[in-house]
Amino acid sequence: MIRHRARRAFLKKLKRKRKRQKLAKENIEREIEELSRLQFSPSYQAQQAKELELAALEAKERYNLNYNVTFYSERNEELWQEREREAQRQWEENNRQKILLKQREEEAQDVHEQQSPDLPPWHLPPPPVPIPTVIEQVPYGPTVSTVMEKCSFFRKTGACRYGFLCSRLHQYPSPYDDTIESFNIADDQDVGGLDEPIDNSCLVLQIPKMFTHYHLDLTKHTGSEDQDSGLEVDESQLLSDYHEFYHDVRMELESRWGKISVIRTCRNLADHLRGAVYVEFSRGPSAAWDAAEACNGRWFAGRQLTCTVVRLGGGWREAICGLYHRGKCPKGDLHCNFLHVFLNPGETSNDLQKTLWRHVGRLISPVDNNSHSDRGRSSTVKSLSNDSSSLTHRHHHHHDRRKTRRQSSSSISSHSRSSSPIGHHHSSRSKNNYKNCRLSEYHSHRKSKRNKHYSSGSRRSSLSRSPSTSSVHKKHKKHMKEKSHKRMKRVNHFLVLFSAQTVLIRHVSKENCTDMLNETRSAMILPAARILKQKPSIWVEINHAVAKYKPVNLGQGFPDILPKQHVLESLTMLGKPDVSPFLHQYTRSMGHPRLVNVLSKLYTSFLRCDRKLYGESGSLQVDSFGPDREIDPLNEVIITVGAYGSLFTAISALVNPDDEVIIMDPSFDCYAPMTVMAGGVPIYVPLRPQLDDGEELISDCWKLDIKELESKITSKTKVLLLNTPHNPLGKVFNREELESIADVCIRHNLVCISDEVYEWLVFPPNHHIKIASLPGMWSRTLTIGSAGKTFSVTGWKLGWTIGPANLIQAMQLHQQNTVYTCPTPLQEAVARSLEIELPLLNTHESYFNEMCALIEPKGRNMVKKLNEIGMIAVRPTGGYFLVADISKLHVPSNELDKNDSLSYDVKFNNWMMQNKGVSAIPMSVFYSTSNQHLGSKYLRFCFFKEDSTLNSAYEILKKW
After folding, report:
1. Mean per-residue pLDDT, 443-458
2. Which residues 6+ apart lie within 8 Å of 70 measured at CB?
3. Are both 95 and 183 inside the same structural domain?
């Protein structure tokens, strides 16, 4: 029964199938017949023709369009080039017309000057102008206030850059007294200043701006502060021009007023000394006065001369800048207030120096170097007891000695004095006007070796050995130990002004005494207090020692091998002429666009939170860097001047005064100074070794005590500084340690500055983990990297910081007012190098993997070699430094430095450099003062060196 039903069902199914096939066949035949009928119908053929025509029109339009675009673009290019050529021709024509016009104007001006009866020729001087006589030029007589100090520069050089606007007295010599003892002080005046001993000063003829030269005028018109900033001048030509001037002037002056003892011409660039000529005549001051009267108002080289007579109070030796002719004048020709003189014909700098130190041309006798320590400054103010009787006695005593010395050693003959009408007029004038002048107290500088200094640059007078003066000396010693305001109250308000040669005592009030003491203190300019607190860097001392002893340098952290070839090519290709000119100009202040873009691509994957450990983005904390997030290159990356620049900018941008910064000891030596310069307070937490018996000594044995860390945190703590891989230990912080640190930062709301410059130098099986990739840490972490450590180009000084936009913006505000931007070519070269490395990341061809494979065996070999000589070396897990325990090595104690203030590792390293020829870095310099004992038995070595360098060090150490 079942089989019969199945058969009937099968037959029905087969019948339906055949029926469908028949219907389909019929439909196909019907469609074919319909299609064949339509193909031959006129309407269908017309439709097909229309479609073909439209297609042809469309193809033609496309062809015409493409042709027009090509044609017009070529045409536009030709038109643009034609316009450029036309513009170039027009520019050249305009320049030619300007040159021709200027030449025609000059020719017309020359013709006008030569033919015009109203204007003098250009080479003739302008009409003479009335110039006052020598007597009318200087303020003789009682024209100064009651209390006024002499201008020290005018006293020494006869010129002052402030001229008549100077607040101090410019004391001119009297034309009625040809001796050196005339004083323009009335009876009721009290002039504070220091008169000179007779054998030091001299009266000379001064002719300002007599010698002119285009080099001197050029620097004047450029307004440059640098004496060498003008056009280059042939020194030999300048001296040749001066020597011609010298012979002409000297010949004329000697033919009229007798032999010249000294003639000097200034080559200073300041207005008050430029081209000034100083002349001292053998006949004495009378010849100077006669020459000044005769030459005043005369014409020379197209200008009218203004002559006067001035006194060089300290003689030629104090007037001439001795440092200039030794090439050591710090102020240069433009700013120095002393005479920079030309060398006369046949004279050398050594000849001039010898002349200044001998008694030639009325020059002063040599004194010790301390007498010139305060050139041009006010003498230091000190107090002295009142002893009027002793002072009166000494005054007459010195006055008699001066008269005797004048009679025996005066350079002016009695014949010239008696024959001069000026000397006759002086007798009556001195009797009327200068009868009651009080002469300043002075003493001989030859007794200065017995003096003691009251302060740097000042000298105490050696007064007569009398009972009164001995009491004065005792009081001075007593007052030296007390504060200045108390000292001023106990001396009856008498003031002593000391200089290199003289001393003046006068009565002043309490207020004036205190004011003058404060003025003297203010003359010493000190650096900022935050700078004075800084200690000298260990690297400066190491550099000096390495240069001195020439050891094998395993201390400083720089490789002595060339970087990768593509890194060098990335830089050298920027020097080709076909590169964009903008690559040699300023770039974006926060970083070159190409570099920040490639850094964002490189670090995005390393900063994302691990999905396997922390889940998807929805389950993470708000402040985390999610697995799907990208770094914003324009707002979350900043380029700095090396990792140093990143650290300084980050700390300065975040730390307020008195904010505390957590630093892990040992630490890189710049962390604490940068914190102090920002006004912060460094708080140190040490890493301590935790060793088990039989365990290999590796850098990861140094652990951070989290409880100790939390105990150091207060309400003022703001920043925690982290360094991984660690310098100097070579420690790589693992995930558990970083999570503990991150938990502390989150709970106490701290900002973490993570110094990760050695991130690519982590030896397997260790892995570098960025603390910013942990949950909740992205918004409070600044990650610092370095191109110098990445590509072994430490001299490029290029670094970067990656972090949240608000912190990066703070760094940008600081950097824009310090360095503004970093070198564009170096940023471009680093960007190109990273773009080459980016697709090779995590492959064997990557430079980062090659570098690790190259460095790790060097570190293991150094550990082995140091252990063989008796040191206990610590195997690093990252970076290119290792530390070694030196406590087991025997060093003769008598050969070590005896300075107890130095720690043992410093003494040992100094001894090793001098006696063994190998240099390292003492570990104590990486510790704070309170934890310095933890590093006193370790040295740090760098093993990223050429094999030849390391082998040289090993050969030396074998002979220990």
Report:
1. 39
2. none
3. no
Alpha-carbon gap, residue 667 to 224, rounded angstroms: 46
Beta carbons within 10 angstroms of residue 215's beta carbon: 19
Pairing verdict, β 681-689 and 938-942: unpaired
For residues 703-715, average pLDDT: 94
User: Mean pLDDT, to the nearest integer, of 6-24?
Assistant: 88
Closest CA to 264 of 252, 278, 281, 253: 278
Give the lowest-confidence range in 2-6, 302-306, 929-933: 2-6
Q: Name the H helices within 816-900.
A: 824-837, 847-868
**Residue 809 included in any domain:** yes
Q: Six-digit token pair at 674?
A: 């940068």
> Which residues, in sequence order, are CB contacts of 638 under 8 Å at separation 6+?
590, 591, 646, 649, 800, 801, 808, 811, 812, 815
Query: Which residue has better confidence, 628 or 714?
Result: 714
- Residues ≥6 apart with Cβ < 8 Å to 724: 731, 732, 733, 738, 754, 755, 756, 768, 771, 878
Q: Are residues 624 and 761 in the same domain?
A: yes
Domain coverage including residue 936: 538-556+850-958
| Bridge partners, 260 (sequence order) | 281
Q: How far lies 380's CA from each of 214, 442, 517, 806, 811, in Å?
A: 42, 16, 8, 53, 46
Residue 640: in which H helix or E strand, if any?
A: strand 637-640
In a domain, 51, yes or no: yes
- How far apart CA 488 and CA 515 sit, in angstroms, is 11
Quick: pLDDT tens for 176-231: 654 443 333 333 333 333 344 445 788 999 999 999 887 776 555 444 444 444 44
Q: What is the pLDDT of residue 472?
A: 40
Residue 298 CA to residue 292 CA, distance in Å, equals 10
Give phi and psi for 149, each to the nearest 5.
Answer: -90, 155
Query: Are residue 120 and residue 154 in the same domain, yes or no?
Result: no
Is the pTM higher than 0.90? The answer reads no
CA distance 207 to 753: 67
Where in 798-944 does DSSP place strands (E)? 799-802, 872-873, 881-885, 918-919, 921-922, 938-942
**DSSP per-residue codes, 386-410:** --HHHHHHHHHHHHHHHHHHHHHH-
Triad 233, 237, 241: Cα angle to 5° = 120
Whether residues 102 and 184 share a domain: the answer is no
Judged against a pLDDT cut of 50, whether residue 81 lies above it is answered with yes
| Domain co-membership, 278 together with 320 | yes
Number of domains forming the structure of the chain: 5
* Residue 118 confidence (pLDDT): 54
How many beta carbons lie within 10 A of that of residue 367, not counting itself?
A: 16
Residue 583 lies in a domain: no
First-residue to last-residue Cα distance in the chain: 112
754-776 burial code (b ≥16 CB/10 A, e <16): bbbbbbbbbbeebebbbbbbbbb
The amino acid occupying position 648 is: F
Rounded distance, CA 590 to CA 809, Å?
A: 9
Task: Kindly give the residue spans of alpha helices, DSSP state H, lying in 341-466.
Answer: 349-356, 388-409, 414-419, 421-433
Cα separation, 870 vs 952, whole angstroms? 18
Quick one: the chain helix, strand, coil %, rounded to 5?
50, 10, 40
CB 193 within 8 A of CB 507: no
Pairing, β 681-689 against β 660-665: parallel
Q: Which of 437, 470, 600, 457 is nearest to 524 (CA)?
A: 457
